[in-house]
Amino acid sequence: RATQYTCMLLSYLIEHKAGKEKLVMKLKQLESSMSSGRKMFRLGNMVHALVAARRTRQLPDVVPRFCLTASHLTRALYFVCDTVLWLKSVGLQPDVDKPKWRNWATKCYYFSLLMNLARDWYEISWRMEQAVQEEKTKENSFWDKHSQELNSVKCDGLHSFLPLLFQILKRHPPLLLDLVKNLCDLSGPLDTLGIYRTNPGVIGFCGVLSSMVGILTLASPHLKLKQ
């Protein structure tokens, strides 16, 4: 995935430079090959999404339970649609209506991302509310490190939404990384659905950043937001 989006970004950056036509063509061919290769593993991804949906149904909190289960189920539908598109691309199902299936796939992926972002926002809101309640608590005994940080925010006159949001995300890297990844992934479906038009350069950059976050959370599981 990282290779695919890196090729997209590089080809966009150099496509208008003289003498780079062959390189641009090679980058686009590599991008297409990476995309096709990834589609071959969609069946495994679909099974993984269904298993994850079954697991998140057991969550005690209703909001994360709904958001994550809906996200996994729609992601599984996205993988189904993407597999059909792959069958079309390799000639196994030549009669497939490609624009229709691509539109369905994009909508499923878009809804899945929205559910993930809703869950992220719920986590942020809950932690912000908790932080404000702790800040309002009057204690004459010694403060722990967490309360001291919140108190410093108040003393500096920075107790407002954005500074508090910054403090919450700073103290919870998994939540920050998950939010960044989901926001970056939105660039593709927003452009495809015509909601917010960008260009291959922006989509490529966001894809590379999202992929790097994914690789980081795989290499360091403690940075992955628990579901």
Automatic annotation (TrEMBL):
> Which keywords does this Swiss-Prot/TrEMBL entry list?
Membrane, Peroxisome, Peroxisome biogenesis, Transmembrane, Transmembrane helix
Q: Which residues cross the membrane?
A: 201-219
Instruction: List the record's Gene Ontology CC terms alphabetically.
Output: peroxisomal membrane
| Cross-referenced InterPro entries | PEX11
What domain of life does the UniProt record list for this protein's source? Eukaryota
What Gene Ontology terms for biological process does this UniProt record contain? peroxisome fission
- Please give the name of this protein: Peroxisomal membrane protein 11A
State the organism named in the record: Leptosomus discolor
